[in-house]
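Dear Dr. K.,

Following up on our conversation at the group meeting, I've run the structure prediction for DUF2637 domain-containing protein from Stackebrandtia nassauensis. I'm pasting the input sequence below exactly as I used it, so you can double-check it against your construct before we proceed with anything downstream. Let me know if the numbering doesn't match what you have in your notebook.
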Amino acid sequence: MSTVANTTTAIEATNDPTAAAWCRACDQPVGSCECDRSTSPAHPTVAVAGRPDTTAPVDARSHSGAAPVEERSATDRSSADSTTVAPLRLGGKTAAGLLALAAAALGLVGFAVSFETVAEAVEPAFQEYAFLVPTGVDLGIFVFAGIGLLLARMDMSLPWLRLVPWGLTAATVYLNITAYDQLMYQVAHAVLPLLWVVVCEVGTHVIRVRVGLERGTHTDSIPMFRWLLAPVATFRLWRVMRLWNITSYPQALADEKQRLLAKTAMMCRYGNAWRKEAPAMLRARYRMRTLTETDVWAWHTDRPAPDRAATAKRPADTRSDRKPAPATGKPTVAHRPDTTRRSTPRPTPTGTDRSTQSDDSVPTADRLAAAYAQFKAEGIEPSGTELAAKADCSKTVANDWKKQRREGGK
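The predicted structure tokens came back this morning:
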């Protein structure tokens, strides 16, 4: 009854010239609806004048794409597309089967042509058993090539295993070449065995790529033109993809762009010495490639940096009020801190000192200038250590600032 009512509502709404039939399942007009109506002939629609009615629940069984593509980011779409494996249909399976039969026939022809040549070449050494040498070599090439293809299909490839059919094929080619003096005969006997190796390598590559895509372990290759135009930067990108297990090339490019923006923001905020001036957490996230430009500028509001001037390291207390424990043979208790002594509270900065406390929103040069002006107002020529403590920066930055100030005053 509800289906009939919904359909009636849609028909009545079409009397309005400004209304359009709208599918509730895919949230699109009926004309561009992608729903599977074979499973739901009376698919409910609504007529709207301004915007679609989305109050009805969505029938996911009759809808071919429940989630709109626009809700996914570009990185998610590229990652999903790079890991999607299109299944082989009847035509693809038929073509693959025919190509496999043709490759097997090619290998048999090549081995048959070289069989007699190899047998004659080794006859002086093996005599009546000379025919077993080319037979064993050809079987070895077939067996190890098949094992390589099977292991690739099981995602258990052994890189060194492909060297076995290569070596056996090279031995066959060498025996065929040395049996003739004319170049034409040598090339004719060498081409056919080499074609079998090429076919096996192509098959192994196809199987490994498909298995990697199915399991999400396939790593995209970097385009060749990028290696030619920017070899150093491309090598760094390739190194990052291997170190951080980034399988998608578009994702690696997006991370690299994010890293460059974050680095620029760190330099603008903390100066050229940002590797020393920036908070440790920001530097750690930058090395892990999870830092964004927004995180850099919003750091002082989310997580303020600690007051390094107030938490400066104090000299260690060398006094010891603890007496040595008597040798009674009993286990001694670990030393506990003396709680009877009253800790001295740290002085709270007041007056003009409060303005020079750490504020990540104020540039380092401005903090140094303000601190130096306060010292000069008191008639004191500050040292680099005093100026650094006052401006909450490193001693190296303070000394460099004083040096630039002296050079600028000359």
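Two things stood out to me. The first strand starts at residue 20 and ends at 23. The two ends are 94 Å apart (CA to CA).

Best regards,
J.T.
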